[in-house]
């Protein structure tokens, strides 16, 4: 079972501080949906409003089309996975998992059976009678998921559940979460500040900043077609050039900067206060000039990262530019001090409006 | 409050509030207000209560201020309670330090269990023990004579001497435990850092450990002073005619004269004394009430 | 810490333990001395007669029964009150919290005589005569504060997201309290009940003013001491000490067993499978 979640003009105020500012978004049933943003952007507040621990100060939240205004947390078809997991330390594992069934009056034998079934689902078949303190971080993670699944929620809410794990395990759990979501077809709403997690797992990502939605789109679109400067610089790396638009034609424009005038794609909302965003992997370094968009640079540092090589350069004005190249095992690594040209294609550079408006109650 | 209702629901939240309100209003605030009010009413025969003579008056307090004996008893109670507090601190501080920072942590639960045995054996038994020990033909005198420290038995139970001994014995643990808790919360690295920087032991105590244990000392002092000044058992058992305690005068008003109004005035004076002491301690040690009572 | 000072501290600890325990020993010894006046010197001879006399004292048995009844009533009232107050204060902040906190701990810092007299006068106003019920109310007024402090301390280590997790899984409020919060508080509630019980047994000052014509053990012993001292009091003390010691030793054994169990249970596995 699975349900859609709709937020309509939702605001959350704490005193004069507006944590969530007029957010409207529709999350389809069965979708893996992530809210991505820096800490304090309001994403956890959204999660707590959907689960019912906070009431919106304005707006409506609907789950499966039903207005949730008068439903308390224990009446909503949601299950929340907490950042610290919140496993009950005084109950054995199986009672933790069966707790949701216990409060629904399911008899003990059935509860136990269901708990063991779920433990098999999350690949912990022998853990039923263990204590919470006897499990490792990854195992606790899976118990938390099993506990949430036990109540057969229509919507699963996950509050940065992977943040406490180490890198290797985190990557493993990403795939596992995704697999569980596909298997159960429950709507997942995932909160994270880690763009890698959001991009890798989600069907759709909402990027948030200062309580406002910046963009809602598929991971690919978020990365390739950022809606504004904030999304461009928060998701992935960017070289940013300041300047002014001098001429427009169709979807592209010429952009005048201290380093010269470049042709680039015109992003949504680009106006007077715009900047040019250029991904490091789209910046090629060549010994001889080949393209119209080029900047003469000097290599200042080369960082070998394994699967890619990051080359730091400086142009004539002292502006730092970073270029990244895949390490295919054959590519040449330039020397420090080498004088090269940094080139890019017009359709891979985008001109976007700069920055995001400050939220209500916050000093500008 | 709305957070509480969300967590515990309306019924449970109101139950919590009602229980707390019952405690604070019915058991604490109203009785004390009534004590205060009553201390300003004259002591009257039953027929006159509510009659024209039943007016507010300062008479009960004037009784105290007109009686040099009562004033002197009050002052001696304050003086000796302060001395008891100070002695308890001197005894307890080194021990609290030893237990919290030097002794092996594994032995602590056992040590504390042994230390609390006198606490479980009630206060009256503790003072009674000293009544036996300090009596003229008691074990202390016999021991001292056998060891040729003294030739003739000493009459211990005269003046405030025996009261002092009894109060210190009865309440020293109330000083020990809070100071222990305070010193234990001090990061041992700080002590080692001070020693590493060349500080002699007394300076480490004076500059690092003692300041950190302030809340504990404040808490212990308040408890010991209050318990001593308000003690009834120890002075009754161990005092002589020359050493009366303020609580004994309160008892006289309550039980012998049956004058509850003057009794409440005197009780209120005791309450003011303890309040002043708490305030003074909070000021000197610059601690809050939440640091004192833990 | 050098050796010399460590040795000094140890000596000090031993002296202090002696100072705490020897008086109890003297008192216990006097219970077996065949002398009409309680003392260990001169040692007249061993006797058990003071225990017999104690047993044959109906007032004592009666006062013992009263003490236990009062103590049970105090536990029954102060544990719920202290717990409720701790939960309430824990979800408050700012001035409301500090004001309530001060009000709650004030009774601990109030002399027992003042509590006793104010309770007596207040209830007399409503024509409630003095008696053990007033002793209970008077004792509850300050013993609740001890329970509150214990529970509040325990609440500090409570992860509030556990309550939210339970609510989120569909539990109703009483279930959250019964299955999540109270189990976490049990150690503090147990300790609170024990402290309340012993504080009540040991209480003299509040009881003296509120008891009316009834005796509790402390009051009875007090009247015995005043009217004419006999070693029966020492015999009673011996029984009290014996009970305490038994309890203490039982507790210590239980604690060591638990410690050993904890030591046996290793740390949790790591994730490097």
Automatic annotation (TrEMBL), chain A:
Residues 5-235 form the ABC transporter domain. It comes from the Bacteria. SMART domains: AAA. Keywords: ATP-binding, Nucleotide-binding, Transport. One of its GO terms (molecular function) is ATP hydrolysis activity. One of its GO terms (biological process) is quaternary ammonium group transport. GO terms for cellular component: ATP-binding cassette (ABC) transporter complex. PROSITE patterns: ABC_TRANSPORTER_1, ABC_TRANSPORTER_2. Gene3D superfamilies: 2.40.50.100, P-loop containing nucleotide triphosphate hydrolases. InterPro entries: AAA+_ATPase, ABC_SmlMolc_Importer, ABC_transporter-like_ATP-bd, ABC_transporter-like_CS, Mo/tungstate-bd_C_term_dom, P-loop_NTPase, Transp-assoc_OB_typ2. PANTHER family: SPERMIDINE/PUTRESCINE IMPORT ATP-BINDING PROTEIN POTA, SPERMIDINE_PUTRESCINE IMPORT ATP-BINDING PROTEIN POTA. Belongs to the ABC transporter superfamily. This is Spermidine/putrescine transport system ATP-binding protein. It comes from Gellertiella hungarica.
TrEMBL record, chain B:
GO terms for biological process: transmembrane transport. Keywords: Cell membrane, Membrane, Transmembrane, Transmembrane helix, Transport. It is a multi-pass membrane protein. The chain crosses the membrane at residues 12-36, 73-99, 111-133, 163-183, 217-238, 265-285. It is found in: Cell membrane. Residues 74-281 form the ABC transmembrane type-1 domain. GO terms for cellular component: plasma membrane. Pfam families: BPD_transp_1. InterPro entries: MetI-like (IPR000515), MetI-like_sf (IPR035906). Belongs to the binding-protein-dependent transport system permease family. CysTW subfamily. This is Spermidine/putrescine transport system permease protein.
From TrEMBL, chain C:
It is a multi-pass membrane protein. GO terms for cellular component: plasma membrane. The chain crosses the membrane at residues 12-32, 68-89, 101-124, 136-155, 176-198, 232-251. Residues 64-251 form the ABC transmembrane type-1 domain. The keyword Transferase does not apply. Keywords: Cell membrane, Membrane, Transmembrane, Transmembrane helix, Transport. GO terms for biological process: transmembrane transport. PROSITE patterns: ABC_TM1. Pfam families: BPD_transp_1. It is found in: Cell membrane. PANTHER family: PUTRESCINE TRANSPORT SYSTEM PERMEASE PROTEIN POTI. Belongs to the binding-protein-dependent transport system permease family. CysTW subfamily. This is Spermidine/putrescine transport system permease protein.
